[in-house]
Amino acid sequence: MPELPEVETVIRSLSSIQNCTIKNVKIITEQLRYKINLDLKNLLLDKKINNIERRGKYIIIHLSKGYLIIHLGMTGKLLIEDTVENNKHTHLIITLDNNKYLTYNDIRKFGFIIYYEGDIKKHDFFINMGVEPLTDHYNFNYLKKKISNSSQTIKQFLLDQNNIAGLGNIYVIEILYNCGIHPLTKVQALTDQNIEQIILETKKILLLSIQLGGSSISDYRDAFNKKGKFQDTFNIYGKKLDPLGNEVIKIKQNGRGTYYVPKLQTLKIGD
DNA sequence: AGGGCTACCTGTACGC
DNA sequence: TGCGTACAGGTAGCCC
Is A57 in the active site? Predict the structure, then answer.
């Protein structure tokens, strides 16, 4: 669920817990995507929260020693709460020294929280990760080079975190619609102009979504349990018609739902 | 090596 | 109403 703009919104809304110290840790559910280290309490106790950053869809909380690496999976929520209510999907409760709680809630348990002390850049999650699409590293030369080594379709390519960090199903669908590119197009068939346009539309859509606090389809919320508004601007995701009244088709591509408008996103011969 | 499929888990929507 | 099925924004690990 949470893609780059949603994770970005979460880390921004977490800024108020910077400089807090961890006073208690309660593990309720051990088995998330990866088992929570049962020693987590001892590892976190009395550590101070320094800066909080995002890399791709991962949240990295810098502690006075080590890091908490968090992924929200499809339904994960990191919440700052005043009281801890009984919620059957709350799996971890961290008590802070400002009388607030940082809780992890995740219906499907596809997310995870791990503690890590090594060189964060060299962690398996990040070592091969692609560029951040909102930086200058995401540019024509970079994509051109990545494409030259790829036999993927453009939809697979954009979803591949080793190419670009942070894009998910919804944003890729919306980007390709804005570019008029069919999702099954092989990347080798893209023109230079296509590549330039993909870069522009990626940045445009991500920035707009961050401005609107991300997309909330069902579960996504920021750290204050607030919904985003970008879903109101979707052109085709989950729709039957685009804003121009064109028919939107839904297909299954590599096991994922893919929406596109055949009239505007044509598949070139030989693709 | 690299691509495709499935599993992980729970909730929801829909068809009968 | 109720049951069964399909599907959901992500990732990794299997098999070929």
Answer: yes
Q: How far apart, in whole angstroms, are the C-alpha atoms of residue A154 and residue A182?
A: 8
- Would you tell me the crossing angle of helices A169-179 and A192-211 to the nearest 10 degrees? 130
Closest-lying nucleotide for A165 based on CA to C1': C10
Q: Where are the alpha helices (DSSP H) in A122-190?
A: 124-127, 140-148, 154-159, 169-179
Q: What 3 state SS string does A114-133 have?
A: EEECCCHHHCHHHHCCCECC
In angstroms, the CA A85 to CA A105 distance is 12
Beta bridge partners of A79: A103
Contact flag, residue A128 CB and nucleic strand B, below 7 A: no
Task: Output phi, psi for A98, to 5 deg.
Answer: -105, 20
**A57 CA, B7 C1': Å apart:** 21
pLDDT in tens, A43-64: 999 999 999 999 999 999 999 9
State the sign of the Cα–Cα–Cα–Cα dihedral A148, A151, A155, A159.
negative
> CA–CA separation, A164 vs A227, rounded Å?
26
pTM score > 0.90 for this model?
yes
A247 in Cβ contact with A262 (< 8 Å): yes
pLDDT at A227 over 90: no
How confident is the model over A123-149, as pLDDT tens digits? 999 999 999 999 999 999 999 999 998
